[in-house]
């Protein structure tokens, strides 16, 4: 099938052709015809499969059937600012021949800029839920004329605590609207929302039984946490890594790992919520052009990254939220390319990796780390290739130097060996160290399935935290904050998660332990998000504004 078979308007067909698209991806081939008929649809598709065009093209085509302009007729909801900007830009590019006005709306931008654009008239709004609800509360946006709604990366929006906001927004649009829901995973809460707000939707999936791409090779390595750096160096030395994303749990770990990798000779940069938008843009630019080979980030910081051509994903720390594994792996093997996802599994995380395997319906082979001898062999192969290249490009001056050294009585083999040693020094190869115990040996099984394993102490997709837990100290990498509202104010854990996530624009699953006393609520938040949480000053629980401060 080609795009010409999809009955697109000439203006859209011309744009698609100009962008170099010829054949639709599976999600585009399945979803576009359904949406063109006016039916609601649920599309299960991973990041990088072309889902933006899959909903944008039919949306633009249906809007173009009417001459009405300047009122909000289409709404696309996205979990993050960056994704909202990307989708808005893509829709502008697809519809530039249709004279459609598109506006991204997200937190962090001045309200007056967004309200002024709305007053001037827009046709399509691409928004994050939190900011859109704020505009609805201010009566600054009217959704009564919306004909088309898209929930993009719906599972991510739910994991960020936006469930109540989504219901508020959908309840502000006409029931006659057409709705499309796109998600990499379809947990029960997604199906519940679909059952309430979608009208007899047709469900399509391009993932089969496996929730991760077949073109992505997935392997696991049993590694003690102290050995993760050495394990990663060995894999970088032996894998054909052109560019990589490395995921860790905390912002502090991003800086530490990036620094250690740089010392080991790898061009690595941390990407965290502390970076300004200009700094983040600069890091991504250098990553795309190859100046930076490895980006180290958390799940939070990596949201909305628009990066293709990632050859490897390293799960240096396994995600507690199992669905986050799917999103991480979806960063590689995009647009039909192959990719590799490598996960470090500490001895206590076997239960977690088993749950991940059950969730993705695919085995992750337990694999021995490359030995020191294997790494040295790879290094020798690369050095030999460099020498061969230099032999072909050797100058007369190089040959004259060798001739002089031999004439002075040096053995040619000794001269060559010395040149090799200098080349190794110039490359700055990291000395290899043994990885302790049996952790570097081949595992007894070729997968992690082990019915006799004791379960890991990780959670089931809610950050592994006990809501309303006891007074135990906050976990490493977490900061405890105190909210001036508690049980006597009707505060419950679910209120804390949704309120903090929405107000601070952070994922609800990032929150740690929550302890609610009569008048105060204590919450553990990741260090990299503490400034964002504390910076809000206060949070609304019902009619009470609760001050927040560091506990």
From TrEMBL:
Belongs to the DEAD box helicase family. It is an enzyme of class 3 (hydrolase). The lineage of its organism: Bacteria, Pseudomonadati, Rhodothermota, Rhodothermia, Rhodothermales. Its EC number is 3.6.4.13. PANTHER family: ATP-DEPENDENT RNA HELICASE RHLE (PTHR47959:SF13), ATP-DEPENDENT RNA HELICASE RHLE-RELATED (PTHR47959). Residues 32-204 form the Helicase ATP-binding domain. This is DEAD-box ATP-dependent RNA helicase RhpA. Residues 461-475 have a biased composition (Gly residues). It comes from Rubricoccus marinus. Residues 228-376 form the Helicase C-terminal domain. The keyword Methyltransferase does not apply. GO terms for cellular component: cytosol. Residues 430-477 are annotated as: Disordered. GO terms for molecular function: ATP binding; hydrolase activity; nucleic acid binding; RNA helicase activity. Residues 1-29 form the DEAD-box RNA helicase Q domain. GO terms for biological process: response to temperature stimulus; ribosome assembly. Keywords: ATP-binding, Cytoplasm, Helicase, Hydrolase, Nucleotide-binding, Stress response. InterPro entries: DbpA/CsdA_RNA-bd_dom (IPR005580), DEAD/DEAH_box_helicase_dom (IPR011545), DEAD/DEAH_RhlB (IPR044742), DEAD_box_RNA_helicase (IPR050079), DeaD_dimer (IPR057325), Helicase_ATP-bd (IPR014001), Helicase_C-like (IPR001650), Nucleotide-bd_a/b_plait_sf (IPR012677). A motif (Q motif) lies at residues 1-29. SUPFAM superfamilies: P-loop containing nucleoside triphosphate hydrolases. It catalyses: ATP + H2O = ADP + phosphate + H(+). The keyword Cell cycle does not apply.
